Fold this sequence. Notes:
Elements: H1 2-14, E1 33-39, H2 44-59, E2 64-70, H3 76-87, E3 93-98, E4 101-103, H4 105-110, E5 115-118, E6 123-125, E7 130-132, E8 138-140, H5 143-159, H6 164-171, E9 177-182, E10 188-192, H7 193-198, E11 205-210, E12 221-223, H8 224-229, E13 235-236, H9 240-247, E14 254-256, H10 260-268, H11 271-290, H12 296-315, H13 320-338, H14 345-360, H15 371-401, E15 445-448, E16 455-460, E17 463-469, E18 479-486, E19 489-494
Parallel strand pairs: 1-2, 1-14, 2-3, 3-5, 4-6, 5-13, 17-19
Antiparallel strand pairs: 6-12, 7-8, 9-10, 9-11, 15-16, 15-18, 16-17, 18-19
Helix pairs in contact: 2-3, 5-6, 10-12, 11-12, 11-15, 13-14, 14-15
Amino acid sequence: MKQTLYPIALLFALLPGVTLLAQEPEGRRFGKAVLIRFEGVVSPRTEQFLYRKLDQARESGADLVIIEIDSPGGYLESSLDIATKLRDLDWAHTVAWVPDEALSGAAIFALGCDDIVMQPRARIGDAGPIFQGQDALFRHAPEKIRSDLARRVRDLAEAKARPPALAEAMVDMDLEVFRVTNKDTGEETFKSDSELVSDRNVQAWEKGELVLESQKGRFLEINGERAVELKMAKATAENREQLVELYQVREPLIVMQPGGVDTAVYVLNLPIVTGLLFVVGLVALYVEFSAPGISVGGLLAGLCFTLFFWSRFLGGPAGWLEVILFLGGLVFLGIELFVFPGFGVAGITGLLMLLAGVVLASQSHLFPESPRALAQLGNSLIVVLASGGVFVGAVIMLSRYYGSIPLFNRLILEAPQVTDVTEDVDQEGKPLPPSQAFPVGVGDWGVAESPLRPAGKAMFGEQFVDVVTDGSFVDAGSQVQIIQISGNRIVVREIEDKV
Length: 499
């Protein structure tokens, strides 16, 4: 049957204007494609942005995910995490589309995609790890980091059938890569001298010319045309339209760009906005502790700190450890204020836990292991300490002018004036002196029936009386003595032992 059909098919193919309808287009066809625009520095924030968009793409039922990369690189750990995520993604075919540049960390995570497609003049590579020294100058990372990174990028390349030696040359400036040809099969690939030496069939390979971009002293960086020639990229495309045509997508391309949530996360992660959240939240807490019950201060403080941790969760650095530390710090401060008055172990522990929770939520590492991480820790501490200084200044201003500031003066419970007691009169209708308006007098002894912080109730004989301390906190059951009666305000002081 095949022998009879072949000449007929050849005849139709030679006729002008005739197309073989049975011929399948080259490559795999895709139903729904999603393009995620990734630009800027690779960081924990942009990493989490990409993960959110990948989740949205999966929910939409996409079977082709295109990541449009325009990035100079960034954090190494974030780049490797993204590469691993893309390498293990099994619900869609992934494509790294590079219209301009994917350098350093961006080149590393592009290796995790199933395909790499580039604009002919776009650039990819130059992924040598560097760090910033104490003198603010950038230097190449130590051998320990370079060796581990070389192994990981080789694994990424092997997983997607790309020449591992070329991927390693992106991170190793001393590695030279050569074009080699298998004498038996004619297969052409690229290997380093160490790979050829370690190959059991070393005699089967014919060593060719050096890949010019891999010469010693430079990290491999290639353009789109060269990447296709070196088998690092699948193809080149001038624009998105050619890219979609290359993969024969049936439905219109869905483009995912940063939305309102992503913009909010970016703004809330700015240092000045972070500091503003701290200041407003702390001042609101001060107002809450200055007024009884749950007021606007408590609600505003809760909103500020919720926004802070929400932005850190979506931005990448924060985890549940930071939230637990922060909430634990608030609990310890509450114990210090309401259970064991004063300023002791609970108060200091609470402040330290609050500081640790806020600082850790602002950085991507638990302990700084590099000068760059140490600089990030310093920036976080500067923001927190500067916010604390502004808060102290705001508290001083509030304590001095609290009663005269509009809105705040409504939160103060002012004591009634002395004239309020004129309603207490004797049998002849004459006003009683202030000290006679109560069934107690200065010097009387009593017992605190409720905790006095500083206000509460005390029992004098068989009478319950509203009292206020002279400034200290008094536990329930403690002995107190009246030291002053002013209007309807009875001031007491704790007495250790009654004599």
